[in-house]
User: Fold this.
Amino acid sequence: MAGSNEQGRRASVTRQTNETRITLTLDLDGAGTSDVDTGIGFFDHMLNHVAHHGLFDLTVNAEGDLHVDAHHTIEDVALVLGTALDQALAERAGIARMGHAYVTMDEALARVVVDLSGRPYAVFQADFATAMMGGMPTQLVRHVFESLSVTGRMNLHAHVLYGYDDHHKAEALFKALGRALRHATEPDPRRTGTPSTKGTLTA
Assistant:
């Protein structure tokens, strides 16, 4: 996986394997615009929500072995997105570091809490009734959050508190992810250094 931290809080990352070819750019100080094409419509829809509600500018172009299934493409895009987030944050100085959001989607309510601590750990609690949402296996929603926590080097706790429509539950989760990340990545005007008593979030 290759990447670069561009001027400002932006990053571009490419990943190429025998299973996927992915190019992704992320601007943490964007306007919420996105251009996402993974070949999996429902996943594109979810990533667009992350960008829109996080006020991130996001472009994703992914080609994967969809003739096998969607797993490799979805997993690798999540890994690349986490890498881009990590690179765009650089030393993570001056940010709020922690963020949370509750989002409702009709009958469903989701909560996402993040800590950009440099330590990857994911907790995911959600029950789904269906095997597929469009072209996306429902079980991979969990895998997206877990993969993002690893390469994004963050604590990421995601819960669906209640709901019965799987689309609504997933959409509430991804919207909450965008909003929680927005709050955690925003500059704290009162913070001049690293938001950690140990002095670093990158080691």
Q: What stands out?
A: Helices lie at 41-54, 71-89, 140-152, 166-185. The chain has a mean pLDDT of 93.
